[in-house]
């Protein structure tokens, strides 16, 4: 395995760790990490049930941590956008239309940016197993919250691992 390949697998495993934390909290098991300059700078897991907010997907959680931190450090919007353009997001499920749109906006606000590149299928079986296990356990939460979450998370019906490179 090449260095970059094993590094990708290492980061995917960290995203899966986040998905496992979500599963332990009876949330749809989706997790992600954001990497900047080779370092994990943020992570997130699905918290839609805990927050009673259907938009609190793993990607939004991780992005908000960074936005808050960078704005607190006094970075301007263009500096934040430039930093995002150098980030890579590793997530255990193909982003829903809401998250994909948000990620696209973050990537494309950089003057030289061209949206984001995307690679799928890495460690897909592990991520699929997590989701299958979760849904086979039955419905631990209210029908409405869960069905809305399923709709948003599985919008594309394609459950595979993805990582995004914003540059
Ligand atoms: Zn989403």
Molecular structure report:
The chain crosses the membrane at residues 142-164. Keywords: Hydrolase, Membrane, Metal-binding, Transmembrane, Transmembrane helix, Zinc. This is CMP/dCMP-type deaminase domain-containing protein. This protein starts with a helix and ends with a strand. The protein is of the alpha+beta class and 167 residues long. It has a single domain (2-138), classed as Cytidine Deaminase, domain 2, CATH 3.40.140. The protein contains 7 helices and 5 strands. A 5-stranded antiparallel sheet has the order 2-1-3-5-4. The chain has helices spanning 3-24, 48-51, 58-72, 77-85, 97-108, 124-136, 143-153, and strands at 31-36, 39-45, 87-91, 117-120, 162-165. Zinc ion (ZN) is lined by residues 57, 59, 95-96, 98-99, 152-153. The site of zinc ion has 8 residues, from helix 5 and helix 7.
Give a short synopsis of this structure.
The protein is α+β, with helices and mostly antiparallel strands.
